[in-house]
Amino acid sequence: MNRFRFLTSFALSIALPLALALPAASQAQTSGVSKVRISTSMGDIEAELYADKAPKTVANFLQYVSDKHYDGTIFHRVIAGFMVQGGGYDAQYKEKKTRAPVQHEGRQALAAGLKNTTGTLAMARTNDPQSATAQFFINVVDNAFLDPTPIPDGDPVTKFEYQGRVYPSVPRSQLVNHPQLAGYTVFGKVTSGMDVVQKIRNTPTGAGGPFPTDVPRTPVVIQSITLLK
Predict the structure, then answer these.
(1) What's the CATH code, domain 33-148+183-227?
(2) Which of 35, 74, 152, 200 has the fewest other C-beta atoms within 10 Å?
């Protein structure tokens, strides 16, 4: 499944599902800052996770860590001028089973200062903002266009401007859940091992498994992700 697609047009009439709740009880940390080590076949990456800014997203990620879901998965999508994405497929390109999606927290994280800048971790998803499960990506450049678009107060929103066009009287729910406006939830940042991320971004890519492009020719395996604190 392609968990990182973009729409080519903005359609305010699109119908979208309601937000899905975080799966039941997790042992994962839900406040403050925690740290993880992502051990890969190209070296180790350490990252801070900001549960104080994206609590449900971090709890979801850490539950997958606790379940050892990521062990043996690969970075299956690598675009040198964009990001590296993994956590959903094993080395044979078999998609791993996941729990129910986590609630999208993009705007909450943005309001707390988390943006899709170089070295940040964010959740991958399909065109449905409420579809993120286990796959994540690391931004290798500043990707401001992946940040959520702020929505003015009010319901309906009496005036909304987007890409030079003004939309009058738009139901708030239609804007909040729109795929292009929702952005991608940032929940962490690489603190060491950015050199490893650079090696991954520069690895030769091509077709692999069900993917026609952007797959590392030599698999980049996530051997494990472990909680450090």
Answers:
(1) 2.40.100.10
(2) 152
